[in-house]
TrEMBL record:
Membrane topology label: Single-pass type II membrane protein
Molecular function, one GO term: glycosyltransferase activity
Top-rank taxon, per record: Eukaryota
Keywords: Glycoprotein, Glycosyltransferase, Membrane, Transferase, Transmembrane, Transmembrane helix
Pfam families registered for this protein in UniProt: Branch (PF02485)
The UniProt record lists the keyword Cell division: no
Annotated TM spans: 31-50
GO cellular component, one term: membrane
Subcellular location: Membrane
Source organism (scientific name): Cinnamomum micranthum f. kanehirae
Protein name listed in UniProt: Glycosyl transferase
Entry coiled-coil feature ranges: none
Highest classification ranks of the organism: Eukaryota, Viridiplantae, Streptophyta, Embryophyta, Tracheophyta
Main location: membrane
InterPro entries, per database record: BC10-like (IPR044174), Glyco_trans_14 (IPR003406)
């Protein structure tokens, strides 16, 4: 009727028109109306729910049913930049290379500290008797350390200042990795702070890391303001918001992954320029996002998604719980060493608790090999407990 009316109003030259003849209203079969209704419902259902619930069929034949999504044209693939193509080729070849065989594989223990290490004596007790299976590297960002253990003498590397939350933290990590990679026998790399302590004996730690089929890099998706809320569109096109991840900086990684970190400049530069405190009115901390996001993008199945360094965030503050001398008990250490589930809490209003079992080569095992943050005053107690609580 709307079409007829528009046609009628558009004729200006004709003054008189014969009256339309009244035709008897046709009776359409009800089955046609019902069929049109069912087809409409089917198409709407296919559009809303996709191939999970409905199928749209050509000519309503069961032999030619296809999902509604297949009717749609394919999404155009993004064209990679020259830098992306080069980066992906290098990353692919590093991940596909055969691990370097070493007659004497070692673990590189890399200490990121502002100055002296208050737990040198504790670490000395941990290392003694295993001198051919470890290497030590110390990055002191503020002052030259004074060493009390001979194992730590002459282990300092050329260091630069580190500002909390800035890209200089990632630079220090890469500086440690570069120095440790010079020794071909170093096959696994552990990043530790000055407040870290071992909670197992050396043999346990060595076997746990060297026999694992993944690197232990913390990684989870946080939809809150301290997670994806820190993402900037300046990361595009190389890093999309859906790939943005968060995690603790205290990692352990295989040599293959250490080489990958050293080879990367494309993604690193994105974080250097667009993830920093005060960026676009928000605080973004590169050390919490660079490695989790990078490995989620390039080798998600190659990381454990949790850190083997325990830290207690239960107080809900900007910094984790710090342990005083009175806090250090056999019960505390036994509880930490028995935890076999990793926990993450989102930073949005819902505060969703994400938990997953700690799977070591597919088998559920305790998550943690080290713990932080311990005050220097806990040294004596830790020295007494280290031989007794380790599993």
């Amino acid at each position: 009727m709307k079409i007829h009316k528009a046609w009628w109003l558009g004729i200006r030259d004709i003054q008189i028109m014969p009256a339309p003849r009244h035709r008897p209203q046709s009776r359409r079969p009800q089955w046609i109306i019902i069929l049109v209704f069912l087809v409409s419902v089917s198409l709407i259902g296919a559009y809303v729910y996709g191939s999970r619930h409905y199928s749209a069929c050509y000519f309503f034949s069961s032999s030619s049913c296809i999902s509604f999504k297949q009717w749609l044209p394919p999404s155009p693939a993004r064209v990679f930049t020259d830098d992306e193509i080069a980066a992906r080729v290098v990353i692919r070849d590093i991940l596909n290379m055969h691990p370097m065989q070493s007659k004497n594989p070692k673990i590189a223990f890399m200490f990121l500290t502002p100055g002296s290490l208050p737990f040198e004596k504790l670490w000395e007790k941990f290392f003694l008797g295993h001198e051919d299976r470890f290497s030590i590297y110390i990055h002191a960002s503020r002052e030259k350390p004074k060493h009390v253990s001979p194992l730590f003498i002459d282990r300092d590397i050329h260091s630069k200042k580190v500002a909390w939350g800035k890209i200089s933290m990632v630079d220090a990590e890469k500086r440690l990795l570069a120095n440790a990679l010079k020794d071909a026998e170093n096959q696994h790399f552990v990043l530790l702070s000055d407040s870290c302590v071992p909670i197992h004996d050396f043999d346990y730690v060595y076997n746990y890391l060297m026999d694992a089929n993944v690197s232990f890099i913390d990684c989870f998706e946080d939809p809150g303001p301290h997670g994806t809320g820190r993402y900037s569109n300046h990361m595009l096109p190389e890093i999309e918001k859906k790939d943005w991840r968060k995690g603790a900086q205290w990692f352990t990684m295989k040599r293959q992954h250490a080489l990958l970190v050293m080879a990367d400049s494309l993604y690193y530069l994105k974080f250097k320029h667009f993830c920093k405190p005060g960026m676009e009115g928000r605080n973004c901390y590169a050390d919490e996002h660079y490695l989790p996001t990078l490995f989620h993008m390039v080798d998600p199945s190659g990381i454990a998604n949790w850190s083997v360094t325990h830290v207690d965030w239960s107080e809900g503050k900007w910094h984790p719980k710090a342990y005083r001398a009175q806090d250090v008990t056999f019960e505390l250490l036994r509880n930490i060493t028995s935890i076999d589930v990793s926990f993450h809490v989102t930073s949005n209003e819902k505060k969703v608790l994400q938990q997953r079992p700690c799977l070591w080569n597919g088998v559920k095992r305790p998550c943690y090999l080290f713990a932080r943050k311990f005050y220097p005053e806990t040294l004596d107690k830790m020295m007494r407990y280290i031989s007794n609580y380790t599993i």
